[in-house]
Amino acid sequence: MLAVMTQKTIALVTGANKGIGYEIAAGLGALGWSVGVGARDEQRRTDAVAKLRAAGADAFGVPLDVTDDESVTAAARLIEERAGRLDALVNNAGVAGGRPEEPATIDLETVRRLVETNVIGVIRVTNAMLPLLRRSAHPRIVNQSSHVGSLTLQTTPGVDLGGISGAYAPTKTYLNAVTVQYAKELSGTGILINNACPGYVATDLNGFSGTQTPEQGAVAAIRLATLPDDGPTGQLFDDNGVVPW
Prior knowledge:
There is one protein chain. The chain has 245 residues and is an alpha/beta fold. 42% of the residues lie in helices and 15% in strands. The chain is built from nine helices and eight strands.
């Protein structure tokens, strides 16, 4: 198995059992990549892998709870045993806080829960996978951010980002800042790390109120996962290009 797998480009997509994450996995699978479907829910993970395989993708399930150290360690071990390296990590898993999210009245447990998943979870998974990424000839890391994490857009008059968000939006701003620091640390290693803005996509995260499809929302992340070696690093992108921090 290892000899066969090393001939393919290997990716891990967290939160890949549905929505944008599933479409990222499908897009990379359509390129001929072997894609790990990272997800907590066993049945949804199994169903997603089956659907991807039925469409011709080389997909495999990766039990993964980004908030749990043991789960993340086990996921890294699974990829180590299956492929011996990792070429692309897409940190897509994330949660929303629901409404209301006004900072003056928000439940602090909501803030903690979102930070644990949307920020600490990304750090936890990234650090566990870095040894495998360092073995790749063309390693890429993509973090799923959002336009709402841009302080520039949040403070630009006339820009509508959906109202006040005292937890979700700040976690994406935090994630943006963390990505910049990773880019500094990984400079010169060949590992390119960038953040993607999927747009306002109809998923269960927003009660399916978005105006774009999950397939459309996957485009930016797929592009960043497949960057050439001279591609950018430490930046925030949507379908139209660079998004200001």
